[in-house]
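Assemble and predict.
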Amino acid sequence: MTVLILAEYTEKHIKNVTASVVTAALQISDDVHVLILSDEKNAPSFAGQAAKLKGVSQVFAVGADYLKAKLTEDASAQIQMVLAQNTYTHILMSSSYSGKRVMPYLAGKLGQDCASDCVVIDDKNLFVRPIYASSLYVVEKLFDEPKLVSVRASAFAPCGSRETPAPITYLTAAPAVSRTRHIGSEITAETSGIDLTCANIVIGIGRGVTRAELPLIEKLAVKLHAAIGATRAVVEEGLISSSAMLGQTGKIIAPDLYIAIGISGAIQHLAGVKDSKVIVAINEDIKAPIFQVADYGIVGDLKTLVPEMIEAL
Amino acid sequence: MKILVPVKQVIDPSFPVRLKDDCSGLDFDMVRLVMNPYDEVALEEALQWRENGRAESIVAVSCGSESSLDVLRNALAMGADRALLIETRYAISPLVLARLLKAVALIERCDVIFIGRQGMGNDGNQVAPMLAALLDWSSISFAEAMTLSEDGQNIIAQVRNDGDGDMLTAPLPAVVSIELGMKVPRYATMQNLIKAKKAVIPKKQADALGVDLEMKVAVVQFRRPPERSGGEIVADVSALLEKLRHNVLE
């Protein structure tokens, strides 16, 4: 049994989510390969980082400038090329937006079903994933190989690193196939400039926070070195960009500390944050459901409580 | 241009979903079934494309049991030109659904498919990319806003991504998966609902489409997730920070 993982990266670094996917893969097999698809210049750096992930036994790297756009069709074609050369029992990727694009697309090309957003791996065939905004888990069995699985990274601890790197093999890129073109990035004004899915501390704001109180929240975020996320209601009011939306239909996070301010705690929102290690709730209404999942709660007005926090930190 | 909008019948998300006591399946007794809210937005976008003169006609299709006729009637009442039921006798997997939708798209000679990014509840996010792969059409997923290029040949879309969003352009034919925030779906008027109630919606059996119906995945069990229990209410900010310093902040 051999597992192939498609690595994800930021401008310079392999993402932590990939280290978590390695942990998931090691639960299936101890033969774990990582595939890097990047531009030519950065491929050696990404491959070197992946080779130092603990538990990885082989790294394949494809460097071609058109891969920088991370287009679904191209990623799928490259994986198919690797599959033509090696046999894999499983292909894993995190259930990020990229993973949610690439895995089902590849599944279509291979004539397979796939398991999305797995939080528990029961065994090599059985994958557990949340449904109904994480109010239930379903256990799915995949029949044929390679089994395609996207993994919720926050459910698995990162694999850590090691000194002796795994071997790296460079592969020639398959021809570009995507007809889709990347024409730009939407620059969002995420105030603290910290990526939500990587932040150790996240402040979430809900309907209880008005535009006037936003500077206060930003001040607290700077103090805590925290990223700011929001509920759907806040995004729809235009207070914050939709890329900051947390929940079933937005981003799913698991920071060390999640501070929910003015958030009542609807199930759709909780689905995105309930894996946080510690949850703090600040809300005026003691009956708000958020208090039922929060480790620590304060009942009171955020207009006085948040400045007190900024002052005390 | 002809737009295909697949519409799925799902449990109204405002109803809590429960597991039967023996964990054998979901308790459907106390719920209401509605059109998948994401598909409603996809249909609204399609209706606006027709109103703006970008599209000529809209076909709504649902794959499921007879009960899915309700969401198709709703689609007609909202303004779809035609509706079609692909009747299945059992729950189908995303791959089989994508195969059925591919067959429909080709039979109907559609140019583009607008579909919700996920079925509310199953939360799988699979069908749109799978369908694009099967058709070998352009794949645009998680679109928050979109338009047609001036020459009418390309879709230009703002899509969600990890970190910031992206702007993409892709030639037709295409499969576009749609985010909830793209549009606010219109309500069907009572008059249109009554009219749709009388409409005869054509049905086709899934096994009559010449499609491979073999599923590659099976649900073997349901399980209750671990519960997070509530903690304590602290008196003030200093008590809170005391706790946090102990725990997460140094």
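Chain B touches chain A through 78 residues (CB under 8 Å).
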